[in-house]
Amino acid sequence: MRIMRMSCCGTEWVGPDRAHCCRRFGGCGAVFDDAQLWDTHRPRGVCVTDPRELGLVATRNGIWQRALDAAG
Ligand SMILES: [Zn+2]
Ligand SMILES: [Zn+2]
């Protein structure tokens, strides 16, 4: 599998299919495993301060994913 490095607004991650909350558009700069998690972290159009409140955990690469996925 080809590894694609992404870089944006001071954040770096691996994988082109991640959902990035861009600081250039008023986001928090976080990177999420998929678009659904991205939606979850903005319940009222505002980023949550700490994605851990939503039951998410960050990978070593700084990508937020569901705790269940991380356990598996
Ligand atoms: Zn960005
Ligand atoms: Zn955000």
Question: If you had to describe this structure to a student in words, what would you say it looks like?
Answer:
- It comes from Pseudonocardia alni.
- This is Phage FDXHR zinc binding domain-containing protein.
- InterPro entries: Phage_zn-bd_3.
- The chain is an alpha+beta fold and 72 residues long.
- The longest helix has 6 residues, at 35-40.
- It has helices at residues 35-40, 67-71; strands at 5-8, 11-14, 19-20, 31-32, 56-58, 63-66.
- The strands form two sheets. It has a four-stranded mixed sheet with strand order 3-4-6-5. A two-stranded antiparallel ribbon has the order 1-2.
- The protein has one domain.
- It is globular, with a radius of gyration of 12 Å.
- 15% of the residues lie in helices and 26% in strands.
- Bound molecules: zinc ion (ZN) (2 copies).
Brief write-up:
This protein has 2 helices and 6 strands; from the N terminus they run ββββαββα. It is of the alpha+beta class and about 70 residues long.
Describe the structure using short key phrases.
single chain, 72 residues, alpha+beta, four-stranded mixed beta sheet, two-stranded antiparallel ribbon, 2 helices, 6 strands, 26% strand, binds zinc ion
